[in-house]
Amino acid sequence: MSTLQVDRIVKQFGDKTAVNGVSFTAEAGEIYGLLGANGAGKTTTMRMVLGIIMPDSGSILYHGKPYSREQLRDLGYLPEERGLYPKIKVCDQILYLAKLRGVPAKEADRRLRMWLEKFNVPEYYDKKVEELSKGNQQKIQFIAAVIHDPSILVLDEAFSGLDPVNVELLKAAVKELRDAGKTILFSTHRMEHVEELCRNILILHRSNVVLQGSIRDIKKRFPRERVIVRLEDDRAIEGLETIPGIRNVARLDGGYEIRIDRDDAAQAILDHARKQGDVVRFELMEPTLHEIFIRSVGEELA
Question: Most exposed residue of 18, 44, 202, 222, measured as fewest CB within 10 angstroms of its CB?
Answer without folding.
Answer: 222
